[in-house]
Amino acid sequence: MQTKEILINIARFVLLVFLQVFLLNNINLGGYINPYVYILFILLYPSDGNTTLLIFLSFLLGLSVDIFEDSGGVHAAACAFVAYIRPLVLKYSFGTSYEYNTINLKKSGATERILYVASIVFLHHFVMFALEIFSFGHTLLLLKSTLFSGIFTFVLILGSLIIFTKKTT
User: What residue intervals traverse the membrane (predicted)?
Assistant: First the structure.
């Protein structure tokens, strides 16, 4: 990675943690809907970047949110899991573009982008809520929390990707 990309990733990391902790954690609709937009850092990390570094940074990202939320490490575990599984999701979502290392989220098709974002968001939410609830007796609560928070997070992330990405022609 170049120095410019490193600085962008550092700024993105800090901005997303502060946005999550001070604004988005205060949103709780109906007891099931809470957006977790901080995983945008994992989604936007360069596909040709160091995977081990991504897993470590994702763990730190989740740990930062855990420290402010006092949630016992569920965010750190979910982020580390999603960062670990990300290459498989990229290969599944983008196919040959991933194998030839030519993935560009801005230029990719809508179907590929939606599949990638939805996969990462719902995997993250499922692992996070499964660790938080940690009971087979509350499977319905796990599924409802995952589904509703996942949909809200998915919409916010796709909206922010549409708004904040530059059109390249």
Answer: 6-24, 36-61, 73-94, 114-134, 146-164
- Residue 89 lies inside a defined structural domain of this protein: yes
Q: With respect to residue 169, please indicate whether it lies within any of the assigned structural domains.
A: no
d(CA 54, CA 64): 15
Mean pLDDT score, 139-155: 91
Q: What is the pLDDT of residue 9?
A: 87
What pLDDT was estimated at residue 155?
94
120 occurs within a structural domain: yes
Residue 82 pLDDT level (bands cut at 50, 70, 90): very high
User: Using an 8 Å Cβ cutoff, are 53 and 145 in contact?
Assistant: no
- Neighbour-count burial of 73, counting CB atoms closer than 10 A to its CB (0-12 exposed, 13-18 middle, 19+ buried): middle
- Quote the CA–CA distance of 12 and 78 in Å, as a whole number: 19
User: Which structural domain range is residue 72 located in?
Assistant: 3-164
- Check: CB of residue 146 under 8 Å from CB of residue 122: yes
